[in-house]
Amino acid sequence: MFYRPADGHDLPHNPFNAIVTPRPIGWISTRGADGSDNLAPYSFFNAVAYVPPQVMFASTSSKADRGDTKDSVANIRETGVFCVNVVEYAARDAMNETSGPWDKTIDEFTKAEIERAECDTIACARVAHAPANLECKLTQIVQLPGAANFAVFGEVTGVHMRDDCMVDGMFDVTKFQPLARLGYKDYTQVRDVFSLTRPGE
C-alpha cells in the first residue's frame, strides 16, 4: 500500500502513529506563573543532544482555555522551565489519567493521586517516585507547520535517578520497565535488553 498524506489514507485509523514506534513518553510537569502545577504525557518526545544534554517534546493540539496550544506549552511560555518524568509500566494508569483534556484549573498530580516533589534546579514540581526526572530550562519553542504544532526544546539542568534503578553504576531500565507508545490505543513495555558494539569500538 502507498498513500500521500495530503490525499488521505482511506483506512479506519491513521497508520502514521503505528509506523513510527515505539516512542518514549515524556511525562511533562510544568508550573504556571500563578503557581499552579500541570502534568501531561507526550509521545512525541526524545533526547536530542549529549553536551549539554538536551531534550524535546512536541504538542500537537490545543484547548479552548489555552488558545493556540495546551497547558504544558502555555506554562512553559510563562516560566521557561519544565521537567520530564520517566514513565514506568507500574504508572501506566496514572499516566493515562493525566492525558485527559482537563480544564487548566485542574491539577493532574492531585487528580491522579501522584506524589510530587520540588525540583532542585528549577521552580517546578516533579513526579516524586518516577524512575528518573530531567529538570529542564527552555531553550526554544519552534512552531511547526500545521495548527497547534509546537516543538519545545530544553537543556537538562538537573537529573534525578531512583536508587533501585541503579545497578553497578549504570541506570538499568529493566528494573522499572519503561512504557512506550505504539499506534492507535496501544503501548508496550521494555523488558528485554541486548548490546551491540559499533564498528571501530
Automatic annotation (TrEMBL):
Superkingdom in the source lineage: Bacteria
A Pfam family annotated for this UniProt entry: Flavin_Reduct
Record GO terms (molecular function): FMN binding; oxidoreductase activity, acting on the CH-NH group of donors, NAD or NADP as acceptor
InterPro entries xrefs: Flavin_Rdtase-like_dom, Split_barrel_FMN-bd
Domain Flavin reductase like, chain residue ranges per copy: 18-177
Gene3D superfamilies referenced in this protein's UniProt entry, alphabetically: Electron Transport, Fmn-binding Protein, Chain A
Transmembrane segments: none
Record protein name field: NADH-FMN oxidoreductase RutF, flavin reductase (DIM6/NTAB) family
Organism: Litoreibacter albidus
